[in-house]
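Format notes (please read before filing issues)

Several people have asked whether sequences and C-alpha cells are stored in separate files. They are not. Every record keeps both together, in the order shown below: the sequence lines, then the C-alpha cell lines. Line labels are part of the format and must not be stripped during preprocessing.
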Amino acid sequence: MIANLKKSQQRAVQYWFMDGLAELSGGFICLFLAITFFIQHRLPVTPISYLAFFLIPFIIAFGIRWVIQRAKEHSTYLRTGKVTPKGGWENRGAMVIAISFTVLLLGLMFFLILQSPKPVDWMPGIGGLIFAFIFAWTGYQTALTRLYFLSLFCLVIGILLAIVGLGGFIGASLLCILTSLILFVSGSVTRWTYLHQNPLLPEENDEH
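Then the structure lines:
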C-alpha cells in the first residue's frame, strides 16, 4: 500500500511537468536571470545592487509561477483535469535538503563575489552546479529522465565556461541563456506533444 501511495504521489508531481509549461516557465526565469547578470556586470558594485541581484530573480520567479498557474487553469486543467501534488512543506525532508544545498551554494557564490575577480571566474561553474542540483533533484522526485539530461547539460556548460575563462557575471549570463534555450526547446516539444494528445473537446471549450 505504501508503495502504491508513493507511486500516486509521484504521478501527481509528474502531472505538473506533462504539459511543458513548467519547463517553459523555467526558460523564462533563466532568461531574466541572464539579463540580471548582464546588468549586474555593467553596474557599479554597491550594496543596493547586490541586494537587487538576489531579490529580483525571486520576485520574477513568483510572478512567472503565477502566470503559469493561470495558464494551467485555462488550458491544462480543462483537458486532463486538476491533480494537486504533495506540497513541499508536507515533504519536509526533501524541502530541507533542497533549501540547505541551494542556500549553501548561493552563500558560496556571494562569498566569491566579495573576493578578487579571479575567484569570481568560477561563478558559471557554481551556477551550473546549482542548476544541475535543481534539475537532478526534480528528476529524482518525478522520475523524468529528461530532467537528468538537463542537469548534466548545466553542469558541463557551467564548468566549461569557467575553464575557458568566461567567468564572472558574463559567464553566468551565458550559462543562463544556454539553459533557457534548452528549456524552451524541451518545454515546446513537451507542450506540442501534450496539446496534440489531449485536444480540447468542443463542449469544454463552450463551457469555458
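For reference, the curators noted about this record: DSSP finds nine helices and no strands in the chain. Residues 47-80 form the longest helix (34 residues).
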